[in-house]
Amino acid sequence: MKLNSADRPSWQEIARESPATKRYWALWNSLYLKDGVIYRKWENNDGGFYRRQLILPKSRIQEILRKTQDNTSGRHFGLIKILRKTRERFYWDRLRADVEKWCR
């Protein structure tokens, strides 16, 4: 949808879509395309800092979680640290739930 139009679709156009699509629809204004890749712009509350997070497809989630864990010297650092490190660069629907599942 973001590729096809700069305008946010109406709720009526989204209402029958998946819960994930609805959550991305809610983030519409913070999503942007760069070189055909979609990112989320996250800003802190005062707007003084922002981070660009790659919107990750489901097919890459396990790979990224594995690499994030590997980048912590091969040790399992636990939920909070893996969650923080993952959020530094990536975003996807239900990220926290996936990290929690991964850390079990």
UniProtKB/TrEMBL annotation:
<protein>
    <recommendedName>
        <fullName>Integrase zinc-binding domain-containing protein</fullName>
    </recommendedName>
</protein>
<dbReference type="InterPro" id="IPR041588">
    <property type="entry name" value="Integrase_H2C2"/>
</dbReference>
<dbReference type="Pfam" id="PF17921">
    <property type="entry name" value="Integrase_H2C2"/>
</dbReference>
<feature type="domain" description="Integrase zinc-binding">
    <location>
        <begin position="57"/>
        <end position="104"/>
    </location>
</feature>
